[in-house]
């Protein structure tokens, strides 16, 4: 699926060559940027014996930017058009193109580039160089390829101003826009670094190039820490550093906390976000995730392959996460077009491939997940789509509350089981399943036993794993950009988002999108009758005493212990892991904790919260269907009710539609006042389909139930040792 490409082992080189003295120079002294770069790069393998290679479409400014970068670094500059092609051919590029024609020109251009031998230089490629594989492999070996990513609309304006109406490779009758779009696949294939160029001056782009190369060569600043790590630093030095590939593999921090980026998430400028307004969902995802995942962990071309595979034909809608107007100022972000009909697909079609790339091939891995309904089928489906070689060394097991999910959700989980993907019902609730998995992970005797006895390590697929949370940032950002693209708002205008949540992961992703520069005003936290989060946001008191989980019609948010809230508390506390540790110790020992006034004010500055009764949930489904013909699922209905109550209608509100109504057919039939039926899940979906609903019954869910109508599944008691027995049984059957 993903091509094998030889990449420089960046982190190893950085660790062994980047001295602490140099780090002090770069980050402590008030030295001018140019002086820093000349000092740092001259001795650290970018100039000296390596090249900075600028790549991008015609009109991207490669030549001008290259000259400025060369001046800043005081190094040679090579323009391929002027210094390689015309010198080799003894004629102009336009004359050569006229002489040999489009197809032969690309071959001749590639042959000329193969003769280039340079070091310590800035090289500006032509717009068509990346279309010749052999010459690009040759050039790439000599340095770092920087993609100047300029929006197509900007390129078209520049080319028009330059009176260019045809470029290399453009056949008669093919629009210039189409050939520019076609070329993007080659730029994505070869780049090491992407620089977003959105209305920036050439000088500003040159500085961005230098910053991007510095980031590429230094992964030391992109480490992760536990939410419970003390500021004094119990663990110091490079051996204690955790990188993206580490946290994907490990899932949960050794101290029981959750991993977060030590220096926070990157922030994109308004111009950079605006450059993505016309981009596809896949293009937006690649840009955002490249910013958040260092290429030492996953090189950009590999990441692009993963994203393209994740959001491909397995999504029913080509827009992946479309935004639909509902009524008034309310818009629906449809997150149910993936193969298992819930928002969990957005992370769990990506995360298994990230995991498979990051983990060592010398060890087997069993990935564990607890689910309140939607994660189960999504994690089983995602890991079952790995390459055969990866499925032989990576298996997944999902634990769900046996009586705490809808009949269709259970049928879907059972039907999603494959040779490396199994599901187990637990005679308890979701909170127990989640707590039991955390206990298993922190039981070093047990995990050590699995490693020694079976050569198998455990990993997590719940949103406690950072790789689960990260892809969710993308769709919140994309929804905002879609509203701008549809001329609903101008960029910079605020929106609110309303999200049904129990584990705080989805709403946390929206808060992260806000941190990265998306103009989200308020995040509205929508709870069902298990309204512990609503009470917490309103009072600052997280109190589990006397609470029992209430089974509702929206089971995916039937949660009392909200895992990802810990990450948000760590963020609000400005990285004070000691405080977070104290709060969660109080929760464990006393069943409650209370925020200080300052933290509560910060929380309420970002988040408002409300909850919805069962009756109001059903009434909302009926009301929306009666007035619009659209069917909300039960979780989206919860969010709709809360948005109606709390949002002030002074700006648009984007309601996250987190699951397809097909997963909750009995509740939908009840809400629509269709006679209650006692039929199997497949019959319920067929009945709903007969009403020609909008949106239609989910194709993937219907097919899964058709194929697996009579399959059975394993069930175990609410006992950690029972869960361990099922874990060992799968390890023995799959890996031995």
TrEMBL record:
Stored NCBIfam families: thrC
Lineage: Eukaryota, Metazoa, Chordata, Craniata, Vertebrata
Presence of the UniProt keyword Amino-acid biosynthesis in the record: yes
PANTHER family assigned: THREONINE SYNTHASE-LIKE 1
Record-annotated Threonine synthase N-terminal domain positions: 237-311
Gene Ontology MF terms: pyridoxal phosphate binding
Modified residues (N6-(pyridoxal phosphate)lysine): 344
Protein name (Swiss-Prot/TrEMBL): THNS1 protein
Domain of life according to the entry: Eukaryota
InterPro entries: P-loop_NTPase, Ser/Thr_deHydtase_PyrdxlP-BS, Shikimate/glucono_kinase, Shikimate_kinase/TSH1, Thr_synth_N, Thr_synth_N_sf, Thr_synthase-like, TrpB-like_PALP_sf
Gene Ontology biological-process entries: amino acid biosynthetic process
Entry's family note: Belongs to the threonine synthase family.
UniProt pathway: Amino-acid biosynthesis
Pfam family, one: SKI
Keyword Amino-acid biosynthesis: yes
Required co-factors: pyridoxal 5'-phosphate
SUPFAM superfamilies the record matches: P-loop containing nucleoside triphosphate hydrolases (SSF52540), Tryptophan synthase beta subunit-like PLP-dependent enzymes (SSF53686)
């Amino acid at each position: 699926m993903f091509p094998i490409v030889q990449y420089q082992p960046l982190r190893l080189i950085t660790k062994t060559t980047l001295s602490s003295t140099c780090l002090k120079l770069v980050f402590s002294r008030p030295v001018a940027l140019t002086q820093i770069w000349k000092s740092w790069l001259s001795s650290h393998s970018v100039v000296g014996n390596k090249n900075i290679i600028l790549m991008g479409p015609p009109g991207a400014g490669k030549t001008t930017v290259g000259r400025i970068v060369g001046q800043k670094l005081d190094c040679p500059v090579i323009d391929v058009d002027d210094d390689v092609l015309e010198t080799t051919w003894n004629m102009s590029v336009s004359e050569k193109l006229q002489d040999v024609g489009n197809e032969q020109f690309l071959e001749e251009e590639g042959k000329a580039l193969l003769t280039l031998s340079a070091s310590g230089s800035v090289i500006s490629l032509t717009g068509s160089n990346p279309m010749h594989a052999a010459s690009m492999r040759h050039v790439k070996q000599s340095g770092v390829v920087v993609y100047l990513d300029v929006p197509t609309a900007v390129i078209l304006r520049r080319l028009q101003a330059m009176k260019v109406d045809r470029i290399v490779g453009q056949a008669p009758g093919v629009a210039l826009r189409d050939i520019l779009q076609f070329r993007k696949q080659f730029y994505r294939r070869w780049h090491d670094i992407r620089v977003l160029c959105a209305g920036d001056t050439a000088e500003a782009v040159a500085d961005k190039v230098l910053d991007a190369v510095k980031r590429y060569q230094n992964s030391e600043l992109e480490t992760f820490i536990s939410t419970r790590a003390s500021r004094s630093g119990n663990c110091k030095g490079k051996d204690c550093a955790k990188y993206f590939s580490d946290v994907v593999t490990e899932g949960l921090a050794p101290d029981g906390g959750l991993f977060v980026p030590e220096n926070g998430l990157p922030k994109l400028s308004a111009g950079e976000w605006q450059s993505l307004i016309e981009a596809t969902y896949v293009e937006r995802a690649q840009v955002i995730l490249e910013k958040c995942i260092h290429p030492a962990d996953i090189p950009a071309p590999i990441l692009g392959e993963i994203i393209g595979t994740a959001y491909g034909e397995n999504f029913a809608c080509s827009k992946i996460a479309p935004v639909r107007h509902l009524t008034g100022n309310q818009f629906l972000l449809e997150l149910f077009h993936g193969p298992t009909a819930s928002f969990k697909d957005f992370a769990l079609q990506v995360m298994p491939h990230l995991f498979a790339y990051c983990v060592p091939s010398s060890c087997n891995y069993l990935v564990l997940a607890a689910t309140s309904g939607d994660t189960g089928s999504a994690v089983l489906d995602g890991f079952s789509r790995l390459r055969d070689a990866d499925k032989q060394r990576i298996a997944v097991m999902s634990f769900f509350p046996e009586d705490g999910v809808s009949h269709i959700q259970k049928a879907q989980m059972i039907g999603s089981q494959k040779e490396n993907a199994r599901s187990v019902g637990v005679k308890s609730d979701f909170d127990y399943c989640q707590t039991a998995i955390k206990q298993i992970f922190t039981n070093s005797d047990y995990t050590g036993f699995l490693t020694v006895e079976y050569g198998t390590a455990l990993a997590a697929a719940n949103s406690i794993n950072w790789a689960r949370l990260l892809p969710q940032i993308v769709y919140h950002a994309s929804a905002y950009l879609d509203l701008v693209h549809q001329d609903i708002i101008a960029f910079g205008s605020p929106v609110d988002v309303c999200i049904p949540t129990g584990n705080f992961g989805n709403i946390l992703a929206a808060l992260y999108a806000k941190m990265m520069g998306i103009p989200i005003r308020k995040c509205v936290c929508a709870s069902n009758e298990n309204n512990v989060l609503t009470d917490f946001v309103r009072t600052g008191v997280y109190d589990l005493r006397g609470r029992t989980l209430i089974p509702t019609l929206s089971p995916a948010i039937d949660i009392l212990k909200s895992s990802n809230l810990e990450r948000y508390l760590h963020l609000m506390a400005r990285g004070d892991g000691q405080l977070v540790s104290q709060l969660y110790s109080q929760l464990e020992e006393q069943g409650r904790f209370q925020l200080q006034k300052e933290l509560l004010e910060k929380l309420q500055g970002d988040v408002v919260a409300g909850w919805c009764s069962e009756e109001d949930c059903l009434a909302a489904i009926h009301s929306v269907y009666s007035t619009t013909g659209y069917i909300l699922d039960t979780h989206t209905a919860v969010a709709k009710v809360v948005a109606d109550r709390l949002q002030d209608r002074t700006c648009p509100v984007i309601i996250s539609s987190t699951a397809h109504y097909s997963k909750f057919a009995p509740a939908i039939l009840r809400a629509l006042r269709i006679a209650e039926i006692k039929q199997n899940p497949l019959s319920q979906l067929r009945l709903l389909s007969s009403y020609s609903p909008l949106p239609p019954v989910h194709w993937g869910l219907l097919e899964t139930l058709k194929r697996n109508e009579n399959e059975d599944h394993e069930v175990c008691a609410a006992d950690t040792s029972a869960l361990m027995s099922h874990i060992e049984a799968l390890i023995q059957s799959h890996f031995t």
